Amino acid sequence: MFSKVLVANRGEVAVRIVRALRELGIKSVVVYSDADKDTLAVRLADESVCIGPTPAAQSYLSIPAIIGSAKSRGAEAVHPGYGFLAENVTFARACAEHDLVFIGPTPEAIEMMGDKNIARETMKRIGVPTVPGSDGPVTTVAEAARFAEEVGYPVLIKASAGGGGKGMRVVENPEQIEAAFVAARTEAAAAFANDEVYLEKYLLRPRHIEIQVLADTQGNALHLCERDCSIQRRHQKLLEEAPSPAVSPELRERMGAAALAAVREVSYRGAGTVEFLLDERGDFYFMEMNTRIQVEHPVTEAITGTDLIKEQLRIAAGEPISFLERVPLTPQGHAIEFRINAEDPFNSFWPNPGTIKTLTLPGGPGVRIDTHVFAGYTVPPSYDSLIAKLIVWGATREEAIARGRRALDEIAIEGIKTTIPFHRVVLDEKDFIAGDVRTDYLPTHEDVLLAGASSAGATPGALG
Ligand code: MV4
User: Domain check: are 197 and 212 in the same one?
Assistant: First the structure.
């Protein structure tokens, strides 16, 4: 096992990784930018290195600064967390070139799954269900129109280099296809320096169901059940739960097998997530594969009794997965994660950085808080707005919801606006309680959520 690991991230995930390292007796080095000098991760780590000014491009995205820090501090490995360089092929390769273990999959697996069209064609080839659509990229309007006629409108034009919803265009009818095709390619070229697009049948009202996978270097590969991440705003997840109220044991078995087929095909190593769309008929289709640990990993840990960051470290050090004797895993109870962002949910989730005056955190059975903030901490405007994750576990979904209500009523963060009141209202909303949640949840429930907010004393603006 490693003796020292560099954590190339910030915020709650840096604290999460430092904690896992501490428990495994591994020294931790965290890098930080000028804005993050007085943070919890820096305080908890064994060592810390200032790698540059606040802008991410000059600090958390600076490959030379991170590699240089790892080498100068004698770290053997680098954990990238999520975001920043976590799925950056150049960074993964640079680690290998400097004899640093990148805690994640091979650069080849990152590269393949980073191209959404190659990922989709690979899944098609190995028989993983994919949404009907084009055979590879479409390069002319005529080709796009032909595939659209074939699969039937509405269709979705997606950027190969996109992902996470970026560079997507919904096309309702033939009259829209030319303008949408040109716009999608223009946007993709501007955003990714790659204008390649492909086309898929647009599934109406799907759920976002993702399977957590883990594979070690001894040939063991397994899944850790699913997460339902359908409540999103502009492709930013807000609330996640595991297991999904829409997934039966039989469907779980089939989705798990599909996810593991993808793992084997790319000789995947470490922790990963295979994302699917589940339609109203109960058919599922491959969407994307994420080659990193994800924000929402704690709900999986809660229902499977695992520590996924420790498993990542064990696998990267050449050790086997530590709980093989318990496989196949079945969900134990139910968990829900609430992303607490420094945003005003009733004013278009507008970022609301500032200083936290007072902080009251919930506790008790089945309550977990992953956060880096503390009373007096100033939330910087320079990075993403996630300041804490509240994860609750219950023996049933009903108990998890009741525990979520209780914990959200206890938690108090004064000095900034947060998404706490949004989550509290969702837990009283009838479709959520019934488990009837799709990716269009926010736009189709704005009125109820705002009404709930105003009765809860929030100053409603607009959810959208
Ligand atoms: C789709 C889709 C409907 N049909 N693909 C892809 C990236 C992901 N973050 C959003 N994606 C979608 N792909 C087809 N063929 C609907 C979405 C989608 C979505 C998916 C999951 C969770 C939230 C979503 C919000 C909007 C659109």
Answer: no
